Amino acid sequence: MRRVVVTGVGMVTPCGATTESSWEAITAGRSGIGPITFFDASEHPSQIAGECSDFDPLVYIEKKRLREGARFIHLALGATEQAIRASGFEPNDELKERVGVFFGVGLCGLELIEEQHQRLMEKGPRKISPYFIPATISNLAPGQISMRYGFKGANYTTTSACSSGAHAIGEAVRAIRYGHLEAAVAGGSEACVTPLGIAGFTAMRALSKRNDEPQRASRPFDKGRDGFVMAEGAATVILEEREAAMARGARIYAEVLGYGATSDAFHLTQPAPEGEGAQRAMRLALEDGKISLDRVGYVNAHATSTPTGDIQELQALKRVLGDTPKALVSATKSITGHLLGAAGGLEAALTVMSIETGIIPPTINLEDREEEAAGLQIVEGHAREQRLDVALSNSFGFGGTNVTLAFGPA
User: Fold this and answer.
1) Catalytic residues
2) Mind listing the pLDDT tens digit for each residue in 70-123?
3) What's the fold here for domain 260-400?
């Protein structure tokens, strides 16, 4: 079976508009959470979010073409442009037919849906934009990427709630492994910091209401957590067949060693007891990569900062890693907030960066650990330097969908 490597990384996050600025802030433990500025949130119980305030779509998209895509597409194009530049990937026309685009998106185009609905109510159907549908369809994130770069391989969106970006990467890896593609663009994008998005998750009692302390609101594994913090952003990785990447002299960040995907088949929003489905996803990723447990040095946990979800993941980690695990664990959502459908893409990208740099991002706001965290080596407060043989990235979503990706040095 062919081996797959990561040759480019691109990020747009609440912590920075570029890969470099995002990575610097995240490893420094500098929160990207603040009061919502995109709309008047004064009547909402949750008034905080992770906004990509520094992102300027005009850096990547002509002004006249902005209307062709909602914000999640703009973010996807920005992250992908960065990843492609970093990779130096310039395939010829023949090879472009075997380059795919796989992008995870959860809710897609919510701000434009709200805007166009208001226009319909106020001005009638004739005032709806002809770009409304193509600008909001989830598959137009990979579609726009495909059209921009001329990549003609498989091109589709994976939509699996908060596992969407991770599924996209895993499915892209499979396509390259089995020879269906030679390379792929993969990742996730989301932009749901809107009145309806915030109100909807608030109605589920999923969001933190720590409005007076935005940067301390996302606190995975802490007893004082009261929900996750909504965030937006995008992350992209460039995936290539290993021998081809080496032959062209590409910078290789990491190798994708394993991919595990499962379903809880249990509940709309709650994970299975003891994170049973998450356990199986982690074990499948290890099995897929033929990885012995003693090689695992780091886990980027899903860890959203919800009361139930964190407990179940902690239990799952201890069941898989053992009673005295050597692996370090961090919860980067404490810094970035929860990017929903883009979370798996971002956290996979961060895990890749940890493999390449030997720097493990910290978990912030962990002041009073849950008892279930006892025995786990959680990276608290400050980044840790440690060379890694294998690192895992966990992504779990509503509907009981679970993904684990395993990475290692190439």
Assistant:
1) 162, 302, 338
2) 999 999 999 999 999 999 999 999 999 999 999 999 999 999 999 999 999 999
3) Peroxisomal Thiolase; Chain A, domain 1 (3.40.47)
